[in-house]
Amino acid sequence: MKKLLIIGAGTAGTMMLNKLHKKLDKRDWEITIVDKDELHYYQPGFLFIPFGMYQKEEVVKPKREFFPKGINAIFEEVKKIEPEKNTVNLKNGEALSYDLLIIATGSTPRPEETEGLKGKLWYKDIFDFYTFEGATKLAEKLKDWKGGRLVINLAETIFKCPVAPLEFAFLADAYFTEKGMRDKVEIVYVTPLSGAFTKPKATAMLSELLEEKQINVIPDFYLESVDEEKKTLISYEGIEVPFDLLVSVPVNKGDDMVENSGMGDEDDLNFIPTDKHTLQSKNYENIFIIGDATNVPTSKAGAVAHFEAEILTENILDYVAGRPLSAKFDGHANCFIETGFGKATLIDFNYDTEPLPGKYPFPVVGPMGLLKVTRLNHMGKMFFKWIYWHMLLTGKTLPVSTEMSMAGKEVEV
Q1: CA of 248: how far to CAs of 76, 123, 184, 257, in Å?
Q2: What whole-number distance in Å separates Cα of residue 70 and Cα of residue 163?
Q3: Which of 62, 125, 137, 406 is deepest in the core (most CB within 10 A)?
Q4: Has residue 413 got a pLDDT over 80?
Q5: DSSP assignments along 216-230, one per residue
Q6: What is the pLDDT of residues 61-99, one digit of tens each?
Q7: C-beta separation of 305 from 8 below 8 A
Q8: Strand ranges (DSSP E) for 53-132?
Q9: What domain range includes position 367?
Q10: 382 exposed, middle or buried (CB, 10 Å; 0-12, 13-18, 19+)?
Q11: Other C-beta atoms within 10 Å of 158: how many?
Q12: Claim to verify: residue 245 and residue 123 sit in the same structural domain
């Protein structure tokens, strides 16, 4: 019997587990999934915890709830992959062999990568919200915070869910306004990007929102270190930005197992060289990578993992049948962007097409508005939690196109 091994049981790994369990012949394939953590976190919900919009119990469930019957689940840390031997070594000393390997080990914030960031002020006056612990501790801090200079800082340009820091800024504006203390809070958005986002039309629209909400943007700021005594961010150019409360988006890196295995790309961030269309490893034909673990040039976001999963399922079936890989991922990404006060906007783009205004997912009726701030977009964002738990993780097909469609988009001639 052949062996399919999936490393990582987060969003991408769990989707692939469920999809392939339905598609592969169980007489021929034994499926094993490995992860070091038994709890599954709905990571998009971390954004809402600091503002009391979600409670912590809403974003955590046991991973086993989403595993199909008949598969092997191992909860142990992966130490190293030996791709030449088709072997995965676990931290407990066990070695797992495979015929086909899917790597879905994601990425994690690494505050220790920046001098002074994770020191004595960590979880006192410096917080992240990309982890369960960080989001819950920041919620406690905001409840009693009396105001001052709130700085939101992106340490790098590659990180999970690139719009989430903007959403945090918009939700903070609404949160402090509704508490009657917005005049006591200065919100500063410090980014290494030259603007609010990476694409021109979305950047223009989001920049207008930031200006409207009196959120000051400091662009082109590459963080070198944090001075804990002076409570100041310091860039490589020597520019200093003071803070009273710092919400950090630290450097993000792939799993340490990637480095241990010598499989990372040249950026030393532990992301794996991956064909951006087929999602096959560029170095090993029986290894495929999905989600944040890849180095493909699109957003590290749950929607991307969802669209990749549809493509990867087709290509896995081609691979096991000995056919050429037929499905091509076009870099499709879309995401709701919370703008505060019960409204949100929506962007939809791929490798070649930037976010454009229009309607989504249907060209005439929408009902969602692209690059438009609407209450319906916010409702879509909030309803996604149910879709995530009940449809996405379990591998069901959602009624949206895997490939990005130009239908409904407004294109300037």
Answers
A1: 29, 11, 21, 25
A2: 38
A3: 137
A4: no
A5: EEE-S--EEEEETTT
A6: 999 999 999 999 999 999 999 999 999 999 999 999 999
A7: no
A8: 60-62, 72-75, 78-82, 87-90, 95-97, 100-103, 107-109, 126-127
A9: 333-392
A10: middle
A11: 18
A12: yes
